[in-house]
Design goal:
Blueprint (H helix, E strand, L loop, with lengths): L9 H4 L8 E7 L6 E7 L4 E7 L4 H17 L5 E2 L5 E4 L4 E6 L9 H15 L6 E3 L3 E3 L2 E3 L2 E3 L2 H19 L7 H13 L6 E3 L8 E4 L2 E4 L5 E3 L2 H7 L7 H10 L3 H4 L2 H19 L2 H17 L1
Parallel strand pairs: 4-13
Antiparallel strand pairs: 1-2, 2-3, 3-6, 5-6, 7-10, 8-9, 11-14, 12-13
Helix pairs in contact: 2-3, 3-7, 4-5, 4-9, 5-10, 6-9, 9-10
């Protein structure tokens, strides 16, 4: 994707900005599946762009749709979600252009409050089922699409089984893992859950603050138990007490009621995904989570 930074490509991108001249394109740190860019126009407007291979256009298309769906239920007074500007591809690369967000890492109270409002608004307008209509992505790996009326059935069939099957193929886990997930399915089907639209990949690298507002981006969303987002905030850290206080302002006592085994169940998906991508310590972490879950819901 270094071609994007060469002068000959400035003109080829200017049609995306209604022929406004591009002043500069600079590479910035980004994810493992794409290159990231800061684009400044002669007019002074600034944008954030992601580029990836033509064969991965669907990953950018998924993000484009997720962002637009999340924006439908968000309250912009508390939560900033970038509105996609352009999605396009040519023979060399695919590109998603977003507004440039002047991110900082300040007080997270409104980040938590804004996320809770998004969860609540979407839950009040839910589809009556769990899932997503198109194939998505979680990091480098595909996120299976489909729908189920029961939460446990969806989470096991469309989230855990694909990851566990891959882990068994990679010889990280053995077939006994399937015995664990049968219990998980029964357990989740027996708890009261209303579908909410979740971010789906809510770690500290995908959030920030802008002045006094929160900001979220890089989603992998689907209709799920809202607690799946909260559980992931506890997996890698980076979320402050202010964040949880803001969330509890909308959903009182929700965090305390989110027992450790619920967190373990929802984070199992992400840990096995990381094991399948990176291996290493994530493999042992996945095995430990499975044992803890087995003991908790046996």
């Amino acid at each position: 994707m270094d071609l994007l930074s060469k002068g000959k490509n400035l003109e080829s991108l200017e049609f995306l900005f209604n022929q406004i001249k591009i002043k500069s394109i600079k590479s910035v740190s980004g994810g493992s599946t794409h290159r990231s860019w800061h684009i400044e126009l002669i007019s002074g407007e600034r944008f954030f762009a992601k580029t990836t291979g033509v064969n991965l256009f669907s990953s950018l298309k998924f993000e484009y749709k997720c962002l637009n769906e999340l924006r439908k239920f968000a309250d912009s007074k508390y939560l900033e979600i970038p509105k996609p500007f352009k999605l396009d591809k040519n023979k060399e690369f695919s590109i998603l252009i977003l507004p440039w967000l002047p991110l900082s890492f300040g007080n997270q109270y409104n980040l938590g409050k804004g996320l809770a409002i998004l969860h609540k608004n979407s839950s009040n307008n839910n589809l009556g089922k769990f899932g997503w209509e198109e194939e998505g992505f979680i990091g480098k790996r595909k996120q299976k699409h489909g729908w189920e009326s029961q939460w446990g059935s969806f989470f096991v069939k469309y989230r855990l089984i694909p990851q566990i099957s891959c882990a068994i193929k990679n010889k990280f886990l053995d077939n006994n893992a399937f015995n664990y997930i049968k219990k998980i399915e029964r357990f989740l089907n027996n708890i009261e859950v209303k579908p909410s639209l979740i971010h789906g990949d809510l770690w500290s690298g995908n959030v920030g603050t802008i002045n006094k507002k929160g900001a979220i981006f890089d989603p992998a969303c689907y209709w799920a138990d809202k607690r799946a987002d909260i559980s992931m905030t506890k997996l890698f850290g980076g979320f402050t007490k202010d964040f949880y206080q803001g969330y509890e302002y909308i959903y009182p006592r929700n965090i305390e009621e989110n027992n450790n085994h619920i967190d373990d169940i929802y984070n199992l998906y992400h840990v096995i995904n990381h094991a399948n991508i990176f291996g290493g310590g994530y493999v042992n972490q996945a095995k430990l989570l499975l044992k803890n879950i087995h003991k908790a819901i046996n």
